[in-house]
From TrEMBL, chain A:
InterPro entries: TRAPPC13, TRAPPC13_C, TRAPPC13_M, TRAPPC13_N. This is Trafficking protein particle complex subunit 13. Residues 331-421 form the Trafficking protein particle complex subunit 13 C-terminal domain. Residues 8-193 form the Trafficking protein particle complex subunit 13 N-terminal domain. Residues 197-312 form the Trafficking protein particle complex subunit 13 middle domain. Belongs to the TRAPPC13 family.
From TrEMBL, chain B:
Coiled coil: none annotated. SMART domains: TPR. Signal peptide: none annotated. It comes from the Eukaryota. This is Trafficking protein particle complex subunit 12. It comes from Hevea brasiliensis.
């Protein structure tokens, strides 16, 4: 089988077939009245009545194919003719950039430019990347019987781009040429796939709710219309998107009817932010901090779609509270060296029995005496709590210093599981003189 | 135009006889205007430059408005031939559009019953457009926005003049379209959508404008929005048939617009077969609907039928050259030739030669990419 590049009867012609675009050009067309008379002439009543019919008589619409003038390139026939978009579509004029998540589509034509028929043509088209070789077309099971001199065989291939970096479209043809020799024609068309966008996320926990902020940045050369940006929560999570209220001026009913403003991210570095509210739907032991992932669908030119998914997004490690300690009541007046009682509630958030417990104020390392101490037995015993149960109790305390002081280090120790919990942040009190 | 020349012309007073018909023919409006208009219709812009030069050197222009009309044709011709620097020089000879030199009342002997500006409005428009064509986009856009203010000022002034108001309203749309086109060219889609919103809210429920809005929405990828706009256009068509009246758009044009909109929706959904069907309906109704012809050819190509797509375009050039011969169609045809033929330079040369024989002076032959 001859592989000389010398003389091949066949040759591949390839054209990227992304979507066409509208031709945009401010036309150099005028209204006849704006050219042949002065702008204020119609203030003259005689002109106002005589001129329009005169002009109409000489500016008739082009309805006759025998009218061999190019007046449609010169005169406006409808007010919208001066709007630089006629609806004429243009084929893609350059290969352009290809991005991850898009679909690569190409018209491939194999031409026989020789003077002889070629027979038994087996055609193959593949995409070769760093990692793999993907077959797009293979006619070896039913080869093309013949391509006449000057003839063509066309096909269109599509490939969803899922890898970055160098790609090669490899087109090969094996055929019998005019002399009966079996020839092999390989042709290679290279392109690079780049990343169209980057996603930066921030996770914040506010009380019971986790907020996910996602910032999408557009690295492409065209504007991206964000068709859908959806957060798919992981198991045990639910999500809903948080949107800003509409600006008052956008509530104009007529224009609302016409269209709602699209989310369009400017090319070359434009960004858009999304905010999601996530709720954990289980109180159970699921300790996973995987929140979920973002599914992003965008559209460019004439709706050309692209789709990407982020990696799993991680939240801050969630430590599910097993027990919760709440301050129910602190006396409004606390006097120096006078005992006072703080009403507390201990809740069990788990499905199992917890406890019994011991409660104390932990000693810190400082040499200073603590400002607030337990008055009486330094350790308090609390009974077991059943699943999701709660228990009220009172801590008897005494303050030894004046002014703003802190009740710190309330520690709850689970005697059976041998677990220490420090479930309360510092509590501020004001200690007054008697 | 200097003051001396103008004073001379004032002395040569035209007949102020109210019975003489000043509006009998185009030539009554300006010296040999019919010939200028005819040349422009045929795209013979070089001949227009010659004619203007000759008229000036032979002192054939007798009134101030003759000079201004010829100036306007000259600037337009230079712009058409893409000689923008020369167009700018020519425009600069008009120092100030609002000068009294260009007002009817300055020459009561020539224009006894008239007052106001005799500047052809297209000169103001070209004054804004040419800087953009020369690459000075900011200057041009500023002038466009100032021009828009000027037009809106005139609209307030001319409340009592019915025909004038109509003209100035047309000019307002004309200038706004020019601004939108420029922003569109620069892909400033947000601004375009706002400006169109503005046009629509000024009571312009023009089906063609709404269709163009749909096109823009489609271009940026907002397919839902585009469908919404196109649905509105279809609704307007039904209302029209039910007894509305649109003097600006004929029935055929309206129906074709709706069909073309539908075709786009199919095209975007990759249903090229249905898109072709819609375009064929358009062509059947109006054989000169070049947008339908061109777009149908593209759909055929996306259907892997390169041969037929080429045939459709070649056929249109043969059948209706004066509408089909446009740069976009030629660009598409040449792209198809490059794909279909290994030795495509031959066939492109044939096309190019034919164009050279048939095309108007302003045709941009770089579209053949030879």
């Amino acid at each position: 089988m001859s592989t000389t590049q010398g003389t091949h009867s066949l040759a591949f012609r390839v054209m990227r077939l992304c979507r066409p675009s509208f031709h945009v050009e401010a036309p150099l067309r005028v209204d006849a009245s704006d050219l042949i008379v002065g702008e204020d002439i119609f203030d003259d009543p005689i002109a106002a009545s005589r001129l329009p019919p005169l002009i109409d008589a000489h500016v008739t619409k082009l309805t006759d194919t025998s009218d061999l003038t190019y007046r449609t390139r010169f005169l406006l026939q409808h007010p919208s003719d001066s709007f630089g978009l006629t609806g004429l579509l243009v084929l893609p004029q350059a290969f352009g950039a290809i991005y991850l998540g898009e679909t690569f589509c190409s018209y491939i034509s194999i031409n026989n430019s020789s003077n002889f028929e070629v027979r038994d043509v087996t055609i193959k088209a593949e995409i070769q990347t760093e990692r793999q070789r993907i077959l797009l077309l293979d006619t070896s099971k039913s080869p093309v019987e013949s391509i006449r001199a000057g003839g063509r065989y066309d096909f269109i291939v599509e490939h969803d781009v899922k890898e970055l970096g160098a790609h090669t479209l490899v087109c090969t043809a094996v055929y019998n040429d005019g002399d009966g020799d079996r020839k092999y024609l390989p042709q290679f068309f290279k392109f690079i796939v780049a990343n169209p966008l980057s996603v930066r996320t921030k996770v914040r926990v506010v009380k019971e709710t986790t907020y996910l902020e996602a910032c999408i940045e557009n690295h492409t050369k065209t504007n991206l219309y964000m068709d859908q940006v959806e957060f798919e929560p992981a198991q045990h999570w639910s999500a809903n998107i948080v949107k800003a209220d509409e600006h008052k001026s956008e509530k104009d009913s007529l224009s609302r009817e016409i269209f709602k403003p699209p989310v369009l991210i400017r090319s070359g570095g434009g960004i858009h932010n999304y905010l999601y509210q996530l709720r954990s739907s289980s109180n159970g032991s699921a300790q996973s901090n995987i929140l979920g992932k973002l599914q992003i669908t965008w559209r460019t030119n004439l709706g050309e779609p692209g789709r990407l998914q982020t990696q799993q997004i991680l939240g801050t490690p969630v430590t599910h509270k097993e027990i919760e300690l709440c301050v129910m009541e602190v006396p409004s007046v606390i006097n120096l060296d006078k005992p006072f009682s703080v009403h507390l509630n201990l809740k069990n958030h788990t499905e199992r029995e917890l406890g019994p417990f011991e409660v104390w104020l932990s000693q810190n390392d400082s040499l200073d005496e603590k400002a607030v101490m337990i008055n009486g037995l330094q350790t308090m015993e609390l009974p077991q709590l059943k699943a999701f149960g709660a228990n009220d109790f009172h801590l008897n305390l005494i303050a030894t210093k004046l002014g703003v002081q802190k009740i710190t280090g309330i520690t709850v120790f689970d005697k059976s599981e041998k677990k220490t919990h420090v479930p309360l942040p510092d509590l501020e009190i004001f200690v007054d003189l008697d | 135009m200097d003051t001396d020349t103008l004073l001379q012309h004032e002395a040569v007073s035209q007949s102020a006889d109210p019975l003489s018909n000043q509006f009998g023919s185009l030539n009554d409006l300006a010296h040999e205007l019919a010939s200028l208009q005819d040349l422009a219709n045929r795209g013979s812009w070089r001949s227009i430059l010659d004619k203007v030069a000759r008229a000036r050197s032979h002192s054939l222009l007798n009134t101030p408005h003759d000079h201004l009309t010829y100036l306007a044709y000259n600037v337009l011709a230079l712009a058409k031939l893409r000689r923008f620097k020369d167009a700018l020089t020519e425009l600069d000879s008009v120092d100030d559009f609002d000068s009294h030199h260009y007002r009817y009342e300055t020459y009561p002997k020539i224009y006894p019953t008239r007052c106001g500006s005799m500047v052809p409005f297209s000169l103001r428009w070209l004054h804004a457009l040419i800087p953009i064509k020369l690459g000075n986009r900011q200057e041009g856009l500023d002038r466009f926005y100032i021009l828009l203010d000027f037009v809106r000022g005139k609209l307030k002034e001319k409340q009592d003049y019915d025909v004038s108001i109509k003209m100035w309203k047309k000019r307002e749309v004309f200038v706004m379209n020019g601004i939108i086109s420029e922003h569109l060219k620069n892909k400033e889609f947000g601004v375009c959508l706002d400006l169109i919103k503005d046009l629509v809210s000024r009571g312009n429920l023009d089906p063609v404008l709404l269709s163009k809005l749909g096109h823009i929405q489609m271009q940026i990828g907002d397919l839902e929005g585009a469908k919404g706009s196109f649905d509105k256009v279809e609704k307007l068509l039904k209302e029209r048939n039910a007894g509305g009246d649109d003097e600006l758009l004929s029935e055929v044009e309206f129906r074709n617009q709706v069909n073309r909109n539908k075709a786009l929706v199919y095209l975007v959904g990759k249903d090229y077969v249905s898109a072709v069907r819609e375009y064929e309906e358009c062509i059947e109704r109006d054989p000169m609907d070049v947008v339908a012809i061109n777009n149908k050819a593209l759909c055929l190509m996306y259907l892997r039928d390169l041969s037929d797509s080429i045939k459709v375009l070649e056929n249109s050039l043969e059948r209706v050259p004066t509408v089909a011969l446009n740069e976009t169609l030629v660009v598409n045809l040449c792209s198809m030739y490059e794909l279909a033929y290994v030795n495509h330079s031959d066939i492109k040369r044939t096309l190019s030669n034919w164009i050279a024989r048939v095309a108007p002076d302003d045709f941009d032959s770089s579209s053949t990419r030879i």
